[in-house]
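Question (not urgent): is this output format expected?
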Amino acid sequence: MTISRVDTVSIPVSDQNQALKFYRDALGFELIRDHCSNNQKRWLQLAPRGAETTISLVTPFGGMKAGTVQGLVVQTDDIQLTHKELKQRGVLLSSIVNLVGGKFATFNDPDGNGWVLIEASAKMYA
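Got this back:
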């Protein structure tokens, strides 16, 4: 078998423009692709700067519902600074919690898709 990595994670959203504003402007993700096909399906693809895995902001399909993705993890080298910067950009985050392996805070996108911000104290593998 030759599967080598997770390429793209689809995030179901109710309003692609609102979601784009959140992920690009509040979280600072880079817009990689904004393409609309002939049948009016829009492909929005973003990623944190330098990341290998991307996200796509999709209108729900195949049984998906906006806001149902939970537990996606993004990493930072300085959770205190990142937490402060995100709050200044209007992101509502939980308090920072110290747990085995690092420091964590959680937040949601406008639809309720749930994210975890971590500062790992060592390389973390799922």
